[in-house]
């Protein structure tokens, strides 16, 4: 991505308007107090401590695609399968979506994606339940499902006429979740995927997408390979700005679809809009007297700007700036039937791997179309919270050590086997002068090897959750720790290494 941002005269005018006006100065850890849409200005905004210390966030996928519950959340585009549309990848596999839809619901002219909206009743949706669950999980922030690629807004939007307040569940889902989460002291924001909406649907006379009466959901007719238009980016910008003004979000998740306009057509519209929007968001945060976070994917921005987010992948080494990876609790982003959830130990291996590398975990849950969550996902979040109750001192507010550890560990990557990890892997974090070592397999011989930990030169080692001090010896740069006969804790184990008062951390 280039390091300068180009603007048309219209974009310059919008940027000027969005960055002016009265603002309350706040002691952000930044060099500049008024932001403009340039790399130099945006990069001065630091990541707030509430985010970098919190480590765990929760978000959800919930829209009309939860009704058919077929395979994945890409149902709205893949149901309109046409073999000659280059935007539809994996053609033979994708065709199964149209085959399933027509066999189950009939022709795409008579029953299109819009017809799932009245079936999204969410009659059992309880925002207070989700706030209580997120609080019990130990997560510090939450992102409400504002809008996905499908273009159906889950709030009372003035910009998107097809929204959940006017049709379907007829409720402001974002507003309900925001109020409930904040009542529990949880930092609350929005999850947005609208950057791909401009190219998401296929338009044919035999589809209901062709009907101008449905433009509010599908957008205006376009050819399969038509490039984005400036007004597409302006619509995206208006959507984000409306969410900012309406809910004053602590956090905004921006999905990678915003990058498609440049990656496929070399059009800068959306990337320029991203910088304008972020500058405006930061300036609004000064008025609100609060510190905010936006995360982004792919090449939407530059490293060092906001929070870089990866999907089911790790950053190499230990990045100096806090970052984030998002995974899903059950292998599916949206509800696709009763699929269960990942085992808690697999999720914790992923979590500790990210934290040891200065990263956060944003974990997705997928409610049913009636608004409820299945028991396996609920239990997973509760188990994470129980584990953090015992081990949180080495996680919440922690920083990476000089090394993240040894051995391959992350087990929730796309296409990977969750049992494919190094059984002897170790990870490190540090907090308040103590070093924390995390191990994923209880050694049969009862002796744990901590590579490089002898450099820390601890005076004492104790198990997290209570217990007697553990004996240990040095072997080169490693520590050999004698574990108790009975296991302490569950799933993934942590021990605390403390120096005497005269010791100096290396």
TrEMBL record:
SUPFAM superfamilies: (Trans)glycosidases. GO terms for cellular component: lysosome. It is an enzyme of class 3 (hydrolase). The keyword Translocase does not apply. Residues 26-393 form the Glycoside hydrolase family 29 N-terminal domain. Residues 419-497 form the Alpha-L-fucosidase C-terminal domain. Its EC number is 3.2.1.51. InterPro entries: FUC_metazoa-typ, Fucosidase_C, GH, Glyco_hydro_29, Glyco_hydro_29_N, Glyco_hydro_b. Belongs to the glycosyl hydrolase 29 family. This is alpha-L-fucosidase. The lineage of its organism: Bacteria, Pseudomonadati, Bacteroidota, Bacteroidia, Marinilabiliales.
């Amino acid at each position: 991505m280039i390091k300068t941002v180009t603007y048309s005269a219209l974009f310059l005018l919008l940027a000027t308007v969005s960055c002016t006006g009265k603002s309350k100065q706040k002691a952000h850890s930044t060099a500049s107090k008024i932001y403009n849409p340039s790399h130099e200005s945006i990069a001065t905004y630091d990541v707030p401590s509430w985010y970098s210390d919190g480590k765990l966030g929760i978000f959800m996928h919930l829209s009309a695609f939860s009704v058919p519950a077929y395979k994945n959340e890409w149902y709205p585009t893949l149901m309109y399968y046409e073999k000659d549309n280059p935007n539809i990848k994996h053609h033979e596999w994708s065709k199964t979506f149209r085959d399933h839809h027509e066999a189950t619901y009939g022709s795409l002219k008579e029953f299109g994606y819009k017809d799932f909206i009245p079936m999204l009743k969410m009659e059992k949706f309880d925002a207070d339940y989700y706030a209580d669950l997120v609080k019990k999980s130990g997560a510090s922030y939450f992102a409400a499902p504002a809008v996905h690629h499908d273009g159906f807004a889950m709030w009372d939007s003035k910009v998107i006429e097809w929204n959940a307040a006017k049709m379907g569940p007829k409720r402001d889902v974002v507003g309900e979740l925001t109020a409930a989460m904040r009542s529990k002291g949880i930092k609350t924001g929005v999850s947005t995927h609208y950057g791909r909406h401009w190219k998401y649907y296929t338009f044919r006379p035999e589809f209901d997408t062709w009907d101008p009466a449905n433009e509010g959901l599908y957008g205006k007719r376009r050819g399969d390979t038509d490039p984005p238009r400036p007004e597409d980016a302006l619509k995206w910008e208006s959507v984000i700005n409306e969410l900012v003004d309406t809910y004053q979000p602590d956090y905004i998740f921006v999905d990678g679809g915003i990058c498609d306009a440049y990656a496929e057509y070399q059009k800068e519209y959306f990337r320029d809009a991203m910088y304008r929007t972020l500058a405006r968001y930061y300036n609004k945060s000064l008025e609100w007297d609060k510190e905010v976070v936006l995360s982004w994917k792919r090449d939407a921005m530059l490293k060092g700007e906001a929070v870089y987010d990866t999907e089911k992948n790790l950053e190499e080494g230990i990045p100096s700036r806090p970052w984030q990876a998002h995974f899903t609790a059950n292998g599916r982003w949206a509800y696709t039937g009763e699929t269960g959830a990942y085992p808690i130990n697999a999720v914790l291996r992923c979590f500790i791997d990210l934290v040891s590398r200065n990263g956060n975990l944003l974990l997705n849950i997928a409610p049913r179309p009636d608004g409820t969550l299945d028991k396996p996902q609920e239990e997973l979040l509760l188990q994470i919270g129980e584990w953090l109750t015992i081990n949180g001192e080495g996680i919440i507010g922690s920083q990476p050590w000089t090394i993240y550890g040894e051995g391959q560990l992350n087990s929730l990557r796309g296409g990977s086997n969750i049992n494919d990890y190094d059984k002897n892997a170790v990870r490190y974090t540090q907090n308040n002068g103590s070093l924390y070592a995390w191990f994923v397999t209880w050694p049969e011989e009862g002796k744990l090897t901590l590579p490089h930990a002898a450099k820390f030169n601890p005076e004492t080692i104790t198990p997290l959750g209570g217990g007697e001090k553990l004996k240990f010896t040095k072997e080169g740069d490693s520590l050999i720790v004698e574990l108790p006969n009975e296991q302490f804790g569950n799933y993934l184990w942590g021990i605390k290494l403390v120096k005497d008062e005269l010791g100096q951390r290396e």
